[in-house]
TrEMBL record, chains A, B:
NCBIfam families: PRK05472.1-3, PRK05472.2-1, PRK05472.2-2, PRK05472.2-3, PRK05472.2-4, PRK05472.2-5. Keywords: Cytoplasm, DNA-binding, NAD, Repressor, Transcription, Transcription regulation. This is Redox-sensing transcriptional repressor Rex. Pfam families: CoA_binding (PF02629), Put_DNA-bind_N (PF06971). The keyword NAD applies. It comes from the Bacteria. Modulates transcription in response to changes in cellular NADH/NAD(+) redox state. It comes from Streptomyces dangxiongensis. Residues 219-254 are annotated as: Disordered. GO terms for molecular function: DNA binding; DNA-binding transcription factor activity.
DNA sequence: AACTGTGAAGATCTTCACAGCA
DNA sequence: TGCTGTGAAGATCTTCACAGTT
């Protein structure tokens, strides 16, 4: 399956469902916004609306973390921010390397959501010697030759692959050999990794194809169905699913 | 929920489960690769390995499309490519507009996976007047003022938002007003859209946070658990989940 | 009265395991 | 014999609905 390996019986480490883990960042984002507006407390209803989920789901999700709310009142914003951050492991520093500094790699390097969430771009790496030394987002690009050394020196455990598909597996192998155990893959390839290594993939092409599928259905329904059951608005999150038994491949631009 | 609207009772338009739809692009990619190597047929086992899923799941997925395989033999590659393409609506032309031509927008514009899958970048749009006329990926950037006109003139029904979070909702509203009914959102915001409009979101920050969660667990387990149940390799697809009742928010860089 | 926390029901998705066809 | 197609079991996720707490 997946990348050619076995998967854990259930990713639900310590009982938190994978689907819940995938939503914690959403709650965190909404809570952070409230925190910046100095809102002291929120009800599950309000927070759910801000995060784009329904309140029952949110309460159930939080129940896996513990009883952090107050009946009749709601949740303390600051406290929840802390609890969720801790749960996600964001209270510690996560040095990250980005490999492949094309437009996408540059976009990622410039992404502000990093630092604020405990992530730190330890290095930008590209195979093109001409890129070496060139600063992107204020960080000088380093050559692929330095990969292993950089990983070790910085204690990097998370790597981002933004290279063309052809180079992805090779880069992946080197990241893993160097000690990286979590990979975010933007290349349109199914990566093969050994046990113990997590891979998440993001693929623009796939997202568009899924949209096209539904778009096509809409066009069809117009002619058919009178009006009884019309398609309703839908918002899907490209992060949720990724099942606990991992079995889905990766993808995307470069 | 989601963007503040209701969702269809079940996105399973015409009976195809949402989870299956999310995997069709993966199969298509694997099949295309086989096709290019002139491989005539594949077994569910082989194709599943190439796509990174297990074979039972793949066979079940295909069973929703119809009986396209031959017992004792496998699936005809070309035939399957056609059937899946048709099912996804990729046999038709999908003009797409990309709004927000920063690094990410440029990366998307340059993404080759577009054209080969029926998608055509009809226009690149940016709010910065200085960008107007500047060619990106061979296509001249146009100013936001032209948005509605472009959508109408090209019959665009799919829009990609790659703007900063602050501009996303406004851009979204204009896209919808112009007639777009499917949106791929890269901005870290929960978009509010009327019924009938689909939104999918991709958020780098969220993906990293999910990785961090598991990474943290790994570190913990090392000290604990002897070796009985060690975490195994996992590959998650950031596209799968997006449930049929849509309820997940969006996110990402700009 | 307001709102959380959660058992239980329902829906969806995955995996098994084997009948059935080439 | 080999491999697909699928009913049925199992696992996970979502939603309901209300008891419990402030």
């Amino acid at each position: 399956m997946a990348t050619g390996r076995t998967h854990r019986p259930a990713t639900r480490s310590r009982g938190i469902p994978e689907a819940t883990v995938a939503r914690l960042p959403l709650y965190l984002r909404a809570l952070t916004a409230l925190s910046e507006r100095s809102v002291p407390t929120v009800s599950s209803e309000e927070l759910a609306a801000a995060a784009g989920v329904n309140s029952a789901k949110l309460r159930k999700d939080f129940s896996y973390l513990g009883s952090y709310g107050t009946r009749g009142v709601g949740y303390d914003v600051e406290y929840l921010v802390y609890q969720i951050s801790r749960e996600l492991g964001l209270t510690q520093d996560w040095p990250v390397v980005i490999v492949g500094i094309g437009n996408l790699g540059a976009a990622l390097a410039n992404y502000g959501g990093f630092a604020s969430r405990g992530f730190r771009v330890a290095a930008l790496i590209d195979a093109d010697p001409a890129m070496a030394g060139k600063p992107v987002a204020g960080i000088p690009v380093q050559h692929t030759d330095e990969l292993e050394k950089i990983i070790e020196d910085n204690g990097v455990s998370i790597g981002v692959i933004a290279t063309p598909a052809g180079a992805a597996q090779q880069v992946c192998d080197r990241l893993v050999a160097g000690g990286v155990t979590s990979i975010l893959n933007f290349a349109p390839t199914v990566l093969s990794v050994p046990d113990g290594v997590d891979v998440r993939k993001v693929d623009l092409s796939i997202e568009l194809q899924i949209l096209a599928f539904h778009e096509q259905r809409k066009a069809g329904e117009e002619t058919a169905a009178g009006d009884g059951a019309r398609p309703a608005a839908t918002t899907r999150d490209a992060s949720a699913d990724q099942g606990p038994d991992g079995d889905v491949p990766a993808v995307m631009p470069a």
